[in-house]
Please model this.
Amino acid sequence: DIQMTQSPSSLSASIGDRVTITCQASQEIRNYLNWYQQKPGQAPKLLIHDASNLETGVPSRFSGSGSGTTFSFTISSLQPEDSATYYCQQYDKVPLTFGGGTKVETK
Amino acid sequence: QLQVVQSGSEVKKPGASVKVSCTTSGYTFATSGFSWVRQAPGQGLEWMGWINTNNDATVNDQKFQGRVTLTTDASTSTGYMELRDLRSDDTAVYFCATSLIVAGVFESWGQGTLIIVSS
Model:
């Protein structure tokens, strides 16, 4: 199975800060990497697919980059409503696997 | 507008089975796929398997081989996930997620179904 390692596991940042999360795959996954946002008690929400493609309706402060084994997810200017847990997920190989999540809190 | 609605929470005893439903509307059911993802309390997301709603082909995580069955009913645009021989560590929220374009991209999610396994 492909292991997805996210870092950090949690972070706290101020409103307006730039926040970056990394996701490392245990083997090459091309660009088959998605990012989801999950708020407490809710289902995950797709933000970015194929490493860097913003889902329709998602604010442009969210972005993603990377290919191969190393990926990053950035919030350019953190907003209060961005407090959530973020997950990366690969779909290059079965079983599809998720990262362990990064909990983002606003100070 | 695409909607995904799951069945309600259930409490089951160890060794029992559970069948969770996922009813969709607002798109052409037969042109997509469903994945099932679960989340144990306070834990991360775990993919369980996927079904193609056009031909009912399935791909499951080997971890669940023999215990999980994915099916669909096109007449009601509903997908089902049955998990057998339940154990306490199957206690989780179970989500269905649709993949309209690419099988591994989960565009829309149900609200989740809490399954508690307890004696």
Q: What stands out?
A: The first strand of chain A starts at residue 4 and ends at 7.
